[in-house]
Amino acid sequence: MTAKSATAAARATVYGYPRQGRHRELKKAIEGYWKGRITADALRSTAAGLRRTNWQQLAEAGIHEVPTGDFSYYDHVLDTTVMVGALPARHRAAVETDALDGYFAMARGTQDVAPLEMTKWFDTNYHFLVPELGPDTRFAADSGKQVSELKEALALGLTARPVLVGPVTYLLLAKAAPGVDAGFVPLTLLDRLLPVYAEVLADLRAAGAEWVQIDEPALVQDRTPAELNAAARAYRDLGALTDRPKLLVASYFGRLGDALPVLAKAPVEGLALDFTEQAAAQLDDLAAVGGLPGKRLVAGVVNGRNIWVADLEKSLATLGTLLGLADRVDVAASCSLLHVPLDAGLERDTDPQILRWLAFAKQKTREIVTLATGLTQGIGAITAELAANRADLASRAGSPITHAPAVRARAAAVTPADARRSQPYPERAAAQRAHLGLPLLPTTTIGSFPQTDELRTARAALRAGRIDTAGYEERIRAEIQEVVGFQEKAGLDVLVHGEPERNDMVQYFAEQLTGYLATQHGWVQSYGTRYVRPPILAGDISRPEPMTVRWTTYAQSLTGRPVKGMLTGPVTMLAWSFVRDDQPLADTARQVALALRDEVDDLEAAGTSVIQVDEPALRETLPLRAADRPAYLEWATEAFRLTTSGVRPDTQIHTHMCYAEFGDIVRAIDDLDADVISLEAARSHMQIARELAGHGYPREAGPGVYDIHSPRVPGPEEVAGLLRTGLEAIPAERLWVNPDCGLKTRGWPETRAALENLVAAARTVRAEL
Ligand code: GLN
Ligand code: ZN
């Protein structure tokens, strides 16, 4: 590759950076403020300090243009709601009284006022607060946060580029406000919203912004012609403004497809595009529209979502091709670095051999700078970096961790028959009925029981070495004993052990599987002040020994009723981890499935007749584009079946999912070939039972009759009413009685009362059959 006549030196930049700080100072400050332990001023100064540290680190690493406005006390979409003045009516007074407290009220709700709804940011595990709009929404510009953060960065002598959520994406992510007809289309507010953006842009220019980045990730999803027209109009109008900075319209999480020609033609000065695997066709698409003559192209060549070192030579080759397609090419990560942890250098316990394969935000920043240098000065300027990178990649590719012959041979030998139960569902159902001898409308729970402070304290004590493993396991057994005793007394039919030994439904298994890596400091924002440490699928996956069998068999030893084994499914294991980028997801899923299959088989061999494999992430991992979904569902359902198909016909396989909207994946749910499925339904009054029936779902189902998201205890009559509603759609032979989800976030008193009511309701309704 030659760094041919790049007219200007390539700049290195990022769209956003982890907000929390090295020691999660932001989380601590915000929660301290909520508890009244620190003042608003103290919180503000902690936040300003974190922003300054981030910018300075970026600048010192060689990033030429730092982002501003990406910082948030809670969520950048909520910040946008404030910026455009779209405050929900129920929060307006609170925001006017105290902007900060009102902001947190919108995010978290108060005793009297509900928060905004939270949902996933595209296909990441970050959650944003959904704007609530209606035909009466009146926008008003409030550029205060954007302007002051820009000024902070400029005052440090940095080149800074404010980052805004774009108007089209903002409206496409919004929903109808409560009380507004659900058919209301927020995008119809575009003409009202654009003048607000015009005002913010003018303010940012006045404050010294040369460029402003406007993020439109919604354009990488399937869009109707009307939506594409709206995007064209938005950027025609914003482009036509005279008092504005230069505009960089950014997209990420995939290729623009039909939206690319729209933006390429728009009168804006630059586009930022994703050029990673996720957007594979983007380069060809860009060539097909004739490139971006006269425009600045910011090329997202370093993957902003995974934690692997980049292949610098491959990225340079992409950048080299792009030089021929735009006026100026700059280098960036494919999306904000918000979605990766801060610094792999903080990991002290990681095998140094693996550590060199990892790139968190700080390491990615360095890669971006190296690429920009190579692009500007030629590869001669980065020979040492390229050699080191080549060695890191070779170490990973040649490692027995990533290439375990036994795991690979086993995965390669899988046949379609391995992923099929030995008998079809109707025959299995009969065998299970005979084997389990359950009553009609059998009662059960989803797995976890309240995770008490005592349990968390015991786990912390174990980590700190204050108690030994034997002492810890003694506590766990005592808890299981209590949970089983309660369930017997309450009269539940299929019991669980309560999952007291699990810190988290993915991490618990990741810690026990070979090839999975846990981090010490790999925190990533999930929402607000909640951060998670996703484990890393680093190598080939195998299960050195049984993971749950001793707990399940212990529970089973305490009772004559069936105890349900409880596992997290392969798709969820992938969805809530960082995945490998050196092999197809389907291959990783298959390895995880085979490891879990061994666990399922061992549970059965140890006498477990009912085994539940949770897949709450099956739907949330759906690819953004409809065209990519069938292939995903194909491998995802196969992985589930591979996990569960090794058992006898009379062993009953359950699955669980935490959501009620499933219409778009009902075929896939059927393809799982599970014997029983439990789903959320209490809040929608068993709507899901009707939908399952409408789709002809042939198996057993437990639409939740107890909403575990709230401490409220449903009375026996209420539960009985829900069951009668369920029976209108699902015959008694196939209807189960269970809560919506696990009980780990609930307290014991309400759990006891609610489950007793649930059993009473099942008995009442059984008597009516
Ligand atoms: N078995 C898990 C539990 O009960 C399921 C959790 C989930 O679906 N998210 O906690
Ligand atoms: Zn659930």
Automatic annotation (TrEMBL):
Gene Ontology BP term (one): methionine biosynthetic process
UniProt-annotated binding residues for L-homocysteine: I446, G447, S448, E499, D614
Pathway: Amino-acid biosynthesis; L-methionine biosynthesis via de novo pathway; L-methionine from L-homocysteine (MetE route): step 1/1
UniProt KW keywords: Amino-acid biosynthesis, Metal-binding, Methionine biosynthesis, Methyltransferase, Repeat, Transferase, Zinc
Catalysed reactions, semicolon-separated: 5-methyltetrahydropteroyltri-L-glutamate + L-homocysteine = tetrahydropteroyltri-L-glutamate + L-methionine
Residues the entry annotates as binding Zn(2+) 2: C658
Binding site for L-methionine: I446, G447, S448, E499, D614
NCBIfam families on file: met_syn_B12ind, PRK05222.1
Family of the protein in this entry: Belongs to the vitamin-B12 independent methionine synthase family.
The protein's role, per its UniProt record: Catalyzes the transfer of a methyl group from 5-methyltetrahydrofolate to homocysteine resulting in methionine formation.
Protein name (record): 5-methyltetrahydropteroyltriglutamate--homocysteine methyltransferase
Gene that this polypeptide is encoded by: metE
